[in-house]
Amino acid sequence: MLWGVVQFPGSCDERDALRACSLLGEARLVWHEDRDLSGIDAVVIPGGFSYGDYLRGGAIARFSPVMEAVARFAAAGGPVLGICNGFQVLCEAGLLPGALLRNEELRFVCRQADLIPEGEANGHFATENVGQTTTRTLSIPVKHGEGRFYAPQEALDEIESRGQVAYRYAPGQNPNGSARDIAGVRNEIGNVLGLMPHPEHAVDPLTGSTDGLRIFEAVAGAREGGP
Amino acid sequence: MSESGTQAEQPAYEALGLTESEYELICEKLGREPNDVELAMFSLLWSEHCAYKHSRKLLRRLPTEGERVVMGPGENAGAVDVGGGWAVAFKVESHNHPSAVEPFQGAATGVGGILRDVFALGARPIALLDSLRFGEMDSERSRYLLDGAVRGIGHYGNSIGVPTVGGEIYFEAPYEHNCLVNAMCVGLAKREEMVRAAAAGIGNAVVLIGASTGRDGIGGASVLASAELGDGDDAKRPTVQIGDPFEESKLLECCLELLERKLLISLQDLGAAGLTSSAGEMASAGGVGIDLDVERVPLREPGMEPFEIMVSESQERMLAIVEPERVGEVLALCEKWQTGAAEVGAVTDSGRIRVLRGAEVLGDMPVEALVDGCPLYDLEPAEPESWIYGNRRELPAEAGVEESLLALLASPNVASKRWAFEQYDSIVGSRTVRRPESADAAVLALPEADTAIAVSIDGNGRRVACDPHRGTIEAVLECAQNLACVGAEPLGLTNCLNFGNPERRAPAWQLDRAVAGLAEACEALGVPVVGGNVSLYNEGPDGPIYPTPVVGLVGELPDPTRTASGFFARAGDAIALLGPFTPSLAGSELAKQRGELKAGLREVDVEAVRVAIEAVREAVRNGAVVSAHDVSDGGLACALAESAIVGGVGCRVDLAPLTEARGLSPEEALFGEGPGGFVLSGDPAALESLADDGVSVLLFGRVGGERLEIAADDESLSIPLADAARAWRSLGERFEPRV
Q1: Res B232 pLDDT > 80
Q2: Mean pLDDT across B433-460
């Protein structure tokens, strides 16, 4: 399996994502001006401050040449994972619902958080807890200044009813004021996933937990079980 | 400064900060009077900030040699060998005066500047640390400066993707007007790809890479950093540079790729005094001349004067020396990274810096005169007769030990700095093995070199104020103790000497004694000084800041899986005090709170501390201890409380063995401060076996329960752990009261 990790000017976590992906397969960087994703089985849009993000997280990156290719890739059912800034880019590009606003406390926050995965029976990205009654939380760090997930109430209801909530912060651990503790969402089909926490920073016991691997495995699973 | 308003008679050189004799010397070296462009350039390169004219002689005392030293003082940053063909580059630098005028941009550009110093060597920055000083937290100005500086550091470091892994913050009244913002950067480089900052190759091109040049920061660092702050500083705000981390992120990646492809002969960042200093220093280091054409410098705005172009401190710029046939490739790679680049000059054999506008010569100066010609001054030190700083009583002398402990834990100097460090990305890069607060030093894995490093930055200005010589020795020992707690051996030291006006006797004496202490401690530990920075004229209306030498150490630990944490982990573990720790209340946080500060610190047995440091390092490496935490601010009681709070488990300790062995009062044992103390936890037999000739180990407690219970002869305290934790975690709440 070949992972493509997109690199924009201003990306920060692309090497970390590359390293995480290479634990599960082959991985290479994809330059932001590249329109060719041939041979790539899954795309990761990493964290960082693409093009400086001075306007709004992801607002410029969505217009980059590579994002045209990512949109086509996603439309064809290819798995796409957006992490932090990558999540913002996917929301800006309309590939995921909702928006990411500045943290409630108006400060950047970097800390470990517990995530509760939410699977759906037929779901891509459904994690190991599908069909089980106990839910295992994942310990994964967050680090962002614009991570407050927002959508209007009706849209939130819709996101929930369609099973598009992928991860929630464990009770009391919402670091940014996200609506309904939502940490990550998927698209309706289930092949595009975005989340604010950083699974690529949770793949090595030496530097934290290894729970992030489960999220990459879920993305890989979406490829295997996908259309 | 007092020159504003009434300088009708004042000569231009004086307004630019040069003395009459310095001006005469310039005329002598030029053989004529300098024109405006030349005068502007001389005034900056002959400023304290660039020329180190009051400190250079002192700095010659510092040991700089060592087996592992790859680059020493004089380069953009120091570097030490970590094996496998890899080197670690690091440096600390101040951005005090800009931060006191505009904290957000001041701190942000401080981070930007130190990053450039490190990647100018060809090292990829892998970690940042910050050492900050503000006035007391009940001052609105201090909270404003703290908030701005923390946001600024986060803004720059987070955006550029370099983790901020450690640091320290102290709050003391003498920093009220003149806060300190020192930033340290650590980078990793392949030894064979490292470059020096010396221009070479007559006829080679000089290429300016990065942002365009504007009017921001004209004379910023050099003007602000070379005189005292005072009334009218708001008017200096335009001299503070504006940072753009995105520009620097592109510049960083671009420069590293240029160096990896071996397209550059040498590289230098543009810092204080902009093009003037970087071209001058590159020419001086290479023994060559440089011609610069101001018409070819990409400008941010029209109508800039040549002198403005030469001294602008616009950020995110680098100067490279390139072989003429490689210029095309260099420009193409800069284009890929969407970063600006222009050929602005050439290396010459003239030994002169020439400023051109097309064919017109606007300035022509010998490099030697411009860069190395500034006279160096001897200090006229005199020890003050008494404590020259104030005292403020916050805690009554009759307060009980429980009240005192809670007050100390809640004091902003001792309290957890989580409020600040959570605003920094501490994990990007996937190297951070020990995050802030989880251990005494940050630990970074270097898998490419099959090793790991630990980094720490320390310097308690209040203790240095009590005794500049012993206080500085303590700062180095404290930093080395922090490294020992994670099993690391120091490889090299960088320092930032933050002091008051060196032309006054008391600050001159503080500086002189502090440098002596720094040299002594480094020699005793066998640690070379590989780089540093001096920041003088740090004064407010009430006098100088506390003399504040900040030391940063980089150490090596072979196995990152074997680093102790700083906190208690297992109920039932024994607790021991290792080391010659003989605390006193002199210069302590308790003495400060009681308003009893005065000159003098207890003598330090450096050799005994060194032996203890080695014992702890080996114990951690061998897995003989579960936790290791050094005793510093707030004394032993605070150290025990910290280990318990972070670990989430209480402890019961009896300090009788300590009071007996060292002849201490209960108060000294609980809250006294001094070097050479480590709180260890682990298996009792393993801890006991650490005792050796010259290494004292006192077993005095057990981990367990939900209270802090500490007895010291006829005094004892018993506090629920939750209460201690609430006090220790109160910094953020005090800053932003919860509604």
Answers
A1: no
A2: 95
Contact between B321 and B330 under an 8 Å Cβ cutoff? The reply is no
Please indicate if any CB of chain B lies within 8 Å of the CB of A13: yes
Among the partner-chain residues B246, B427, B445, the one whose CB lies closest to the CB of A49 is B246
Interchain contact, B427 vs A145, CB within 8 Å = no
pLDDT digits (tens, 9 = 90+) for B481-515: 999 999 999 999 999 999 999 999 999 999 999 99
Query: In the CATH scheme, what is the homologous superfamily, with its name and number, of domain B11-46+198-374?
Result: PurM-like C-terminal domain (3.90.650.10)
| pLDDT tier, A124 (very low <50, low <70, confident <90, very high otherwise) | very low
* Pairwise CB contact (< 8 Å): A53 & B151: no
ipTM, 2 decimals?
Answer: 0.94
Give Cα B175 to chain centroid, integer Å: 16
Rounded to an integer, what distance in angstroms lies between the CA atom of residue B347 and that of residue B245?
30
Task: Evaluate if residue B7 carries a pLDDT over 60.
Answer: no
Beta carbons of A10 and B246 less than 8 Å apart: yes
In the CATH hierarchy, which top-level class contains the domain A2-225?
A: alpha beta
B122 and chain A in contact, CB less than 8 A: no
Structure confidence at residue B241 (pLDDT): 81
Q: What is the CATH number of domain B413-735?
A: 3.30.1330.10
For the record, the structure tokens of A163 come out as 């099973």
pLDDT recorded at residue B255:
97
Contact between B53 and B46 under an 8 Å Cβ cutoff? The reply is: yes
3-state secondary structure of A57: coil
Chain A contact for B425 (CB, 8 A cutoff):
yes
Chain A residues 88-147 with CB within 8 Å of chain B: 105, 107-111, 141, 143, 145
d(CA B653, CA B557): 31
Catalytic residue among A32, A124, A144, A198: A198
Q: Is the pLDDT at B5 greater than 50, yes or no? A: no
- Dist CA B480 CA B440 (whole Å): 10
- The residues with which B210 forms a beta bridge, in sequence order, are B317
pTM of the model: 0.95
Asked whether the predicted pLDDT for residue B411 surpasses 90, the reply is yes
Where do you find CATH 3.90.650.10 in chain B? Answer: 11-46+198-374
